[in-house]
Design a protein that fits this description.
This protein is mainly α and 127 residues long. It is rod-shaped.
Length: 127
């Protein structure tokens, strides 16, 4: 009888182990399903972030291109302005020299006319 009791006890323990293994297997399957769902969400999130990153990169490239174009145009305008100012300074310098000669000739001519007028007045009054 004792042997039958031990066999019965062993069978009960085996049934308990089978139930525990079944429960652990169910828990493992549930964990696997949960992990798969989580990974699927992570994959979708990564896909969305990659697309968003691509759009952001395109926008950044457009902004950078616009800035570089603006800087290039600004440098060109600065160069043209500097050349214009240099040319203007040279022309002003030339005008000043030309005006100086005109002024000297004008003063000389005016002085000659005034001198001739005074000489004529002196001749007229001396008689």
């Amino acid at each position: 009888m004792e042997l039958e009791a031990q066999v019965k006890q062993h069978e009960d323990k085996l049934k308990q182990h089978d139930k525990e293994l079944s429960r652990l297997n169910d828990a493992t399957l549930e964990m696997q399903r949960t992990m798969n769902e989580g990974l699927a969400r992570v994959d979708e999130s990564n896909k969305f972030l990659r697309e968003q990153n691509g759009r952001q990169s395109e926008q950044n490239q457009e902004i950078l291109s616009a800035i570089l174009e603006r800087n290039t145009r600004s440098e060109e305008l600065e160069y043209e302005k500097r050349k214009y100012e240099e040319g203007l300074a040279h022309e002003t310098d030339m005008l000043n020299k030309t005006n100086l000669w005109k002024l000297i000739l004008g003063i000389g001519g005016s002085s000659a006319v005034i001198f001739a007028f005074i000489m004529e007045l002196l001749k007229f009054f001396r008689g």
